[in-house]
Amino acid sequence: MQSTLIFQHPDIAACTLPDLPGLTRNTHTARAAVAEGFALQPSEQAQLRSQHIDHAVLPDMAFSELGLIVSDMDSTLITIECIDEIAAGAGLKDQVAEITERSMRGELDFEQSLRQRVGLLKGLDEKFLQDVYDHVLQLSPGAEYLLEECKKHQVKFMLVSGGFTFFTERLQKRLGLDYQYANVLETADGKLTGRLLGRIIDARAKADLLIQHRTLLDLEKHQVLAMGDGANDIPMLEEAGIGIAYRAKPKAQEHADASIHFHGLEAVRGWFR
């Protein structure tokens, strides 16, 4: 499959781009066919960053050739880390957020860090979860557009999260997502027990669920795209045909095929014809 160098910016016509043969522009993207292994010079990359242009070398594909997008939830499909916002209700946001950040950077084992954070929430009233969903949770810019494009082109969408089913189930119903998987918080008498139920959705589980649904849908590897922002997403980014790091930690960017630094999730659609 031919490779394409793709540039993205809301007003690409006004941007200064490298001088490449066959470069074409439309409203938000510019494209040029390139040889396998092509890379821009550091000075060219710096020039693009200074103009807030996202760029990547990817297979020359139509969006409709995809069959499945697998997405992380926290700080990817939505703008927040849910567990940090839940912890705010217990006056523990800073303490929990510090553990979250270290886990996202890959400095802590995910399952241990998750259980540690959930343990700190013991005794918290369930209403704090609903408050977070109703008043704090926001979709990332471009999320609704990307989901509309998925429905338009019959691309399945799976939300797979190291967060909690309380949020993924509500988002699935609200947005019409095809699949959702996350961790289950145990509750008793309307309060969190500080424990989790069932299988932990960690990095390996995310990748396994991608493989499972790729097989279920009879898709080739190149027809599956994964997107995430942290170390916990790396195995699924690598297992996908195309891995997208969205406003991600450096470690996740190193394992992705493309990174979105400056734009919203509409840029996922923009990587394709």
Please give a structural write-up.
This protein is an alpha/beta fold and 273 residues long. The protein has two domains: 1-60, no CATH class; 63-80 and 139-272, HAD superfamily/HAD-like (Rossmann fold, 3-Layer(aba) Sandwich). The chain contains twelve helices and eleven strands. The strands form two sheets. The chain has a seven-stranded mixed sheet with strand order 8-7-6-5-9-10-11, with helices on both faces.
Question: Which features would summarize this protein structure in a list?
Answer:
38% helix; 12 helices; 4-stranded antiparallel beta sheet; magnesium ion binding; 2 domains; 273 residues; single chain; 11 strands; 7-stranded mixed beta sheet; alpha/beta; Rossmann fold; elongated
Short description:
By secondary structure, the chain is of the alpha/beta class.
